Amino acid sequence: MAARILVVDDDTAVREMVCDALELAGYETLSAIDGQQALSVLQKNHADLVVSDINMPKVDGYELVEKLRSRGNQTPVVFLTARNEKPDIGKGFRVGADDYISKPFGIEELVLRVAAILRRSISSESSKILSVGPIEVDVDAVTVKLNAKSVSLSPTEFKLLLVLIENRSRVVSRQFLLDEVWDMGFSESATVVDTYISYLRKKLHTPTFEGIRTVRGFGFQITDK
Fold it and tell me: Same domain for 113 and 20?
């Protein structure tokens, strides 16, 4: 699936040129005319990276990044701007930008820098902590915490929890879980899923969190509540 990039610039010609170049490089693009509109776009759409000017009305590029970071949004941001003095560049990185490209710029350089940041972002995401409700899973360390306290899971329990969290937006069937966790392509052993779901509930459910739901007739889903 192509990465989606939000391009933010109040100059229509620059904005359209950057979008065209990124689309030719195989990316999907969204666009916004200033930081205020960019924040609105990001509330409704996922973006893998933001390419933004700094000098814009309403909400400028610096404010855009500051607002994103204050909300916990760590989407990588590349500043593409005519402000190329050292204090401007320093401020850009201090507020949380991931790269800084000065105008005038080369299209090839922009595309290469975007590709490099996306590669770093994907690598970082592969080792991030996954969370749902009060549960935190460190994939690399193979550890689980509930309300910041360590919980001991068996390898099978850990794998089952990981699959549920990775598919948190879906109701997953017993057959899907058999295939993903136990590598079983048949339904006769479906009761093993219910058994291990029960184990997870005993270890992870609390009086205020019962996030592993049974959706009758369909399967299971993990939620934040």
Answer: yes
Bridge partners (DSSP) of residue 99 are: 78
Give this prediction's pTM.
Answer: 0.57
On whether the CB atoms of residues 33 and 45 are closer than 8 A, the answer is: no
Give the number of other CB atoms < 10 A from CB of residue 184.
Answer: 16
| Co-location of 198 and 211 in the same domain | yes
> Phi, psi (5° rounding) for residue 214?
-95, 125
12 burial (CB, 10 Å; 0-12 / 13-18 / 19+) is exposed
Range of the domain at 121: 4-125
2: which 2 tokens? 């192509």
Total domain count, the chain: 2
The CATH code of the domain that includes 48 is 3.40.50.2300
In angstroms, the CA 91 to CA 79 distance is 11
Q: Is 99 helix (H, G, I), strand (E, B) or coil?
A: strand
Angle between the 191-204 and 155-166 helix axes, to the nearest 10 degrees?
90
What CATH number is associated with residue 162? 1.10.10.10
What pLDDT is recorded for position 73?
Answer: 84
CA distance 117 to 112: 9
- Report the share of the chain in percent with pLDDT over 90: 55
